Amino acid sequence: MTSGQPGTGNARPTPTGAAAESQPPTKAAAGTPTQQNAATKQDAAESGTAASDSTTKGTDASKDSDPAEDSGTVDGAVKDSAAIKDSKSAKDSDPAKDGDTAKDAKADGTGGKDKADSEVKPVGPERWEAFASAPEPKPSIVSRVVRAVGRFLIHEWTLAALGALALAVLMTWPTLRYPRYTLPQDYWDPSLQAWQMAWSGHILLAEPARLWQSNTFFPELWSFAFSDTLLGYAPAGMVGSGPEDAVLRYNIMFVLAHALATLGAYALARQLGAGRIGAAVAGVSYTYAPWLLAQAGHLHVLSNGGIPLALAMLARGHGWSLRHGYRPERRHDGWVYAGWLVAAWQLSLGFGIGLPFAYFLAGAVLVTAVLFFARRLRTGQAVPFGRRLFAADVLGGVLFAGVGLLMAFPFFKVTELHPYAERTIADISLFSPPASGFVTAPGESRIWGGLHEGARAALPWHPEMTLLPGFVLYALAAGGLLFSVWRLRHRLLLLAGVLLTMAFAMGTRFFDGTFTYVPLFEHLPGWSGLRTPGRLMLWTTLLLGLLAAGAVTALTDRVRELTAQRIPSWPGPWLRMATLLPLLLVTVEGLNTTPHPVVPTQPAAMRSAEGPLLVLPSNQSLDQHVMLWSTSGFPDVVNGGSGFTPRQLDDVRRVSQSFPDQTSVDYLRTLGVRTVVLLRGQVAGTPWEISIDAPVESLGISRQDVGDAVVYRL
């Protein structure tokens, strides 16, 4: 069988018998019955012509054709099929012929009157469509909402946040067992910080202009800047009132600070290219490093999660990761704005942790700009950056710097009014840890605390000198130098960062700090206010965690490659345990025995006493309780505890040793004090143990017993 030869431009194979009758109508004939009849006759005429031409011209060709092809082989069928398709396509695509067909049908006169033509029916749907699967019904609004919620709940970042929160509750237990009555570590600095959150929230709602003129240290100015303020927690301070709510608020923020630190370090490691388990190791080791257990009473030190979280957001916004380098297509200015906002919030929590972070960001911006222009000069090509990203960095940097300046202004005023409050190199030396501190754990460590008791006894001030980040973390970081997903140069840079931050954390113990801490102390604004160099160990811990994350990620990748060869390709129990073991060991090493003492109950006299008032006895520790008790109404109180003691408060404590007598009464009246509260439970071994019941009528003041206290009204 041969293919039809082109005749008039619309050649087709000759249909015979039933095959000719089963030819489907053309597209033009699918309109009305009249047009279908005309199109059918026209097709028949054209088919005869085409068959005649094909028969005449194909006789000679058939002599040389393969007999098997004529008898219906596969090749012949394929050729016939192709010829039919070409013929139909050519016929259907000829508008001129369609027009002629319509004219012939009209001229014929029979049109729709022909009975045979009237029986032609339009082609219906395929007969097998009845067996097709039913279309999926459109989901309702409720179904779509349920699916969206389900996808959200199983998303990586939702699981990471919930996991960090659950781990924080467990690792800080029993903080939330009696959250209204106990405080972690001790009840001195936590009482101060509970008051700080309560004061900032209260005054921002009542009288924002008085923020820095707190109700404590009366009548000192800028008294809220006598120590780190935790100002970023002010929104939490707007809920609740009184000492019990202040303690509850503190405990909640204590747990949330741990959760945020874990999530922030996890996010940073993931952004840099670590796997999920490796990032979890970085997050847990950063938050629950043994040395941080000694800082359980310093919420401003534990509130460090904004540092890695801001770095993760900034890196993501700039499309950069440690594992993949700079990828311009991943830039997003929204993440840059978010990163600068989180960085500004972190700075508002206090300069003790925020100031080194601010200088790190400034250095990172400078180094990035230098590398950017150096690469442009070397290659002669502009590196993609974008105006929107540049604007986000400028605006975000201005916001961050503005928050820093607004926060710094009150502290500079305090230094101006109290120059003796500024630290000296001698003060720094008292808190500078030796090299042995890096392998010594605090007493609160459940694993190492008892074993390191002798090593702690050799340290001059062990609460700030036990700087062990964890032996497991040391081992994982060391392994990360040899086996890691990070490039070799990145591993070496991380190692250099670890060694450098350790040298800075030693303060004046590293060659007297001549080439490390002392230049920073002398030349960087605000650095002289940092009393404890050992807290720079925070950066060492973060860098060690990133080295460990690289090693653990390489391990999990290798396990995945090995299990891909298994049938089925799923890790066995021992391989799964191998990938989770580093995370488990880091978590166990962070277990603690932190005490949770009961907070002293607020005296009944403090609830109704009119300010300004003085509570006796007065000293650094007891005054922090007074600050917490003053959260009931925030009356002005002379008492106060902070990083330094104003000379006027020293004078008050010295003169009031003889209270009540004429000299002390006159002095307190000069300051504006109207009420003195003398606590009976605290007078044992003090001069007031004898004078607490002495008559006071001759002094022109009144005396009243209120609960376990004596209230004097001046």
TrEMBL record:
Keywords: Membrane, Transmembrane, Transmembrane helix. Residues 82-123 have a biased composition (Basic and acidic residues). The keyword Transcription regulation does not apply. The chain crosses the membrane at residues 157-176, 248-269, 276-293, 359-377, 389-412, 467-485, 492-511, 536-556. Residues 1-123 are annotated as: Disordered. It comes from the Bacteria. Residues 49-59 have a biased composition (Polar residues). This is Uncharacterized protein.
